[in-house]
Design the sequence.
C-alpha cells in the first residue's frame, strides 16, 4: 500500500495537501552529535548500544528499563555512565536528548513511540512498529502530525546488499517476478531461564500473546517488509497455518508457522518459520521468468533461466526439467555493513539531513497490518483479505 493509500483508507488523509506529512519539512536544528536515549535494555537494546558506540556523532546519554538488573547490565557497557531511568516518561523529560531507540516488547511500541513523538524526540522503533491495527493507525497519525524523524527497525531495508538486490530486480534482472519463498528456521525455544517467577512474562514476553505475535512478527516480518519493498505494494490476502506442536511449555504463540500471502497479479509469497529445526536457516528466494535471486543475511546469488532449461525425459517423466546445482549460481558482490549498524547510521543521517528513512512509519505500518492479517488467518483457518476500513472504529 502506498503512503497516500494507507492514509486515505485509515481516514488520516483529508486532502491531497497532506500526501506528504509535515515532518518532512522540519527545520534542521540538531547538534553535531545526536544524543540518544535507549528505552529497553534487554539483549536487543544492549546490542544496539554496542553498535552505537562505534558510530560517529551518536552518543547514548540515557537508558531506561523497568527491570533493574537490565539497567545494571547495560551500565557495564559504558565508561562514562549515562543517566538511568525506570520510567520512560521521565527519560523523555530529558531536554538533552535528541532521539530515542525503542527496544521494548512489541505490545508497548505504539504507546512509547507516540509519547516520544509528542515529546519532540526523533524515534527509531524496533519492529514490529506496532501490535494491532489501532495502535498502528494511531502511531501513523502521531508521526504525520509531527516534525520528527521516525524509522522502523526493519534493518534489512537499510542493508546495501538488499538495496542493490531490490534495484536489480526492479531493473529486470530476473524478469517478471513470479514468487517469493522465505524461511527463517531456528533450533531453540526462545525461552530464557527466569529466577524470579514474578517476572516470567516480562523476560519471556515473546512467548505470550499479550506482548507478541510470535514468529511471524519477530522473524518473518523482516522478509514481509522486503517483499513489500520489491513489489512496491502490500498483500491482498493471506492464508496460513500455525501450531504449538513441539514446545509444550505454556507458551501462547506458535512454535511453527507456514503463511502464504498473495499480491496483485497473482504473485505468491510464502513464509516458513520453525523453532525446532534450523536447516538452511535464513533465506529469501525471489523467482522470476528470466532467473532467480537467493538472498541471505550477508550474501546473495543470481541464477539465470536463459540457456539453462533442458526439456527431456528424466526418470521416465516426459518434459521434466533438470534441476540446478549450486555451482551454477553467480554470487552478487556488493559491499555492505551489518544491516543493523547501517540502519542506525541511516537514522543518524536522516535526522541530520531531514530525510525520510527508507524504513519509515508507512512501510512499517504496512508490515504491521500484514502480520496481523497473517495471525488472524492462522488463528481462524480463514483466508483474510486486506481491508483497512473495517478496522476503523
Sequence:
Amino acid at each position: 500500500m502506498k503512503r497516500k493509500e494507507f492514509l486515505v483508507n485509515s481516514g488520516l488523509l483529508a486532502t491531497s495537501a497532506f500526501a506528504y506529512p509535515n515532518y518532512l519539512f522540519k527545520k534542521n536544528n540538531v547538534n553535531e552529535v545526536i544524543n540518544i536515549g535507549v528505552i529497553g535494555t534487554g539483549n536487543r537494546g544492549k546490542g544496539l548500544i554496542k553498535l552505537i558506540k562505534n558510530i560517529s556523532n551518536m552518543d547514548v546519554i540515557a537508558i531506561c528499563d523497568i527491570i533493574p538488573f537490565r539497567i545494571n547490565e547495560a551500565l557495564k557497557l559504558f565508561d562514562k555512565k549515562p543517566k538511568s531511568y525506570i520510567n520512560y516518561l521521565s527519560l523523555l523529560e530529558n531536554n538533552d536528548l535528541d532521539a530515542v531507540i525503542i527496544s521494548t516488547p512489541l505490545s508497548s511500541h505504539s504507546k512509547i513511540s507516540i509519547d516520544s513523538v509528542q515529546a519532540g524526540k526523533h524515534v527509531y522503533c524496533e519492529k514490529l512498529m506496532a501490535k494491532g491495527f489501532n495502535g498502528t493507525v494511531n502511531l501513523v497519525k502521531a508521526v504525520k502530525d509531527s516534525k520528527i524523524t521516525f524509522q522502523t527497525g526493519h534493518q534489512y531495508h537499510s542493508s546495501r546488499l538488499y538495496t542493490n538486490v531490490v534495484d536489480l530486480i526492479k531493473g529486470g534482472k530476473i524478469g517478471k517476478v513470479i514468487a517469493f519463498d522465505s524461511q527463517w528456521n531456528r533450533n531453540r525455544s526462545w525461552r530464557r531461564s527466569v529466577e524470579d517467577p514474578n517476572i516470567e512474562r516480562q523476560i519471556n514476553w515473546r512467548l505470550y500473546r499479550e506482548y507478541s505475535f510470535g514468529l511471524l512478527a519477530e522473524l518473518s516480518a523482516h522478509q514481509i517488509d522486503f517483499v513489500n519493498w520489491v513489489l512496491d505494494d502490500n498483500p491482498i490476502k493471506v492464508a496460513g497455518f500455525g501450531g504449538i506442536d513441539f514446545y509444550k511449555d505454556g507458551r501462547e504463540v506458535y512454535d511453527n508457522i507456514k503463511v502464504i500471502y498473495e499480491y496483485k497479479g497473482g504473485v505468491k509469497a510464502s513464509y516458513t518459520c520453525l523453532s525446532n529445526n534450523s536447516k538452511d536457516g535464513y533465506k529469501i528466494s525471489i523467482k522470476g521468468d528470466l532467473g532467480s535471486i537467493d538472498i541471505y543475511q550477508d550474501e546473495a546469488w543470481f541464477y539465470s533461466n536463459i540457456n539453462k532449461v533442458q526439456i527431456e525425459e528424466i526418470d521416465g517423466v516426459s518434459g521434466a526439467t533438470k534441476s540446478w546445482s549450486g555451482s551454477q549460481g553467480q554470487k552478487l558482490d556488493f559491499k555492505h555493513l551489518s544491516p543493523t549498524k547501517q540502519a542506525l547510521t541511516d537514522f543518524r543521517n536522516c535526522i541530520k539531513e531531514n530525510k525520510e528513512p527508507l524504513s519509515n512509519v508507512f512501510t512499517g505500518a504496512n508490515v504491521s497490518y500484514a502480520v496481523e492479517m497473517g495471525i488472524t488467518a492462522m488463528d481462524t483457518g480463514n483466508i483474510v483479505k486486506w481491508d483497512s476500513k473495517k478496522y476503523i472504529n
